[in-house]
Amino acid sequence: MKVTTRFAFCIVFLALALTGCNKQEEAASTKTAEKPAPQAAEKQVKAGFVYVGPVGDGGWTYAHDQGRKAMEKLPFVEPSIFLESVHEGAEATRAITGLVNKGCNLVFTTSFGFMDATLEVAKKHPDTVFMHCSGYKTADNVGTYFGRMYQPRYLSGIIAGKMTKSNVIGYVGAFPIPEVIRGINAFALGVRSVNPKAVVKVVWTQTWFDPGVERDAADSLLDVGADVLTMHQDAPATLQAAEARGAYVIGYNSDMRKFAPNSFLTAPVWNWGALYTKVAAEVKDGTWKSRQIWWGMDKDLVRLAPLSDKVPADVKALVKEKTAAIVAGTLKPFAGPISDQDGKEVVAAGAVIADADLLGMNYFVAGVQGTIPK
C-alpha cells in the first residue's frame, strides 16, 4: 500500500513538473518571437594600408590617410589598419603579410617600391584583394591604381609661368622615375604655354621624405635665381625654404599653405577617398576585378588646391578655363608639337602621347634644365 501511494504521488509530481516546464518553454518561445532578430553585420570590408612615410608628413602619406578615413565612413567598412614608414623589400613583405593575417580582405600598398612585395604576398593569399599604387604589374587578385597628376601639374605650371619675374623656376624632384619625370614635363609645358622664356631647373634628392635634404635642394635652386619653387616630395621643406626667402611656391600632395602662408600659390593635390570608396564598394559587392586604374580630374581623383590671393584675377580666370577644358577632354597637356630638351621633336603636331609612353617617360621636354640619372 505504501509503495502504491508513493508511486501515485511520484506520478502526480512528475505531471505537475512537466506542466511547469511546458509553460516555461512557451513563455520563453513567446519572448523569443517578440524580440527582433539580430541584424546582419553591415561591415564586410576590412582594409589594410601600407605607407612609405609617416601619416604626419603633410604630403603623400597624409593624403592617402585622408582617403582611408573617407573610406571608413562607409557603413560596410570595418575600422582599417595602417602601417607607416615601411621600407621596401623584406620589411614590406612582412608588413603586407601581417595585414592579411589580421583579417584584412582588402590591402592597399601605397608606393611604387612595394610592387614586388605586393605580388609575392598576393600569390600566397588568392582570396585577398590587393591594390598597388603607381605600379604596372597585376595578377588575378592584384590591381593597380594611380591618378593623372600631370593634369593639375600642367595647370600649376601655367600659374608659375605667369608669376615668375626672373624666368627661373625651381623643381625639387625625388627619384628619376617616369612618374616624377612626367610631372616635371607637364609642369614645364604649362609654364612654356604662357611664358616661352621661362626655364624649369631640376635638382634630384633621391628620397621621398627627408626634410633636411629637400630643404638643401630648395635652397640651391633659390641660390641660382629661382623665384618660384615646386616639388615632387613628401615633406613641406620646399615650401618652408620659399617662405624664408620670399619666393613663391607651389606645393604637392595636399594643401600645404599653412607651411608658407605668404608664399603659397596652389598645389596639385590628391583626393584618394574618391578611389578608395569605389574599390571598397566593389569588394563588398563582389564586383571587383583586377585592372589598372588611371583616373584624372574628370573623376576628381586629382585637382588643384584653391588658388591663394597672391594669384591675380586674370590668372585665376585662365586656370579656370583650362581646368574646364581638361575635364572636358578638349585640352590634353601632352598634345603635340612637343620637343625634348635637345630640340628633337618627340610628339608631332596633332598627335597626343599614348598612355603607355607616358607611363614609361624617360626624357625631359624643352624648357627643362637638368639631367636624368641613368
Automatic annotation (TrEMBL):
All residue ranges annotated as the ABC transporter substrate-binding protein PnrA-like domain in the record: 45-321
Alphabetized InterPro entries for the sequence: ABC-Purine-Binding, PnrA-like
Signal sequence interval, chain numbering: 1-17
A Pfam family this chain is assigned to: Bmp
Key words, A-Z: Signal
Gene Ontology CC: one annotated term: plasma membrane
Keyword Protein biosynthesis set for record: no
Name used for this protein in its record: BMP family ABC transporter substrate-binding protein
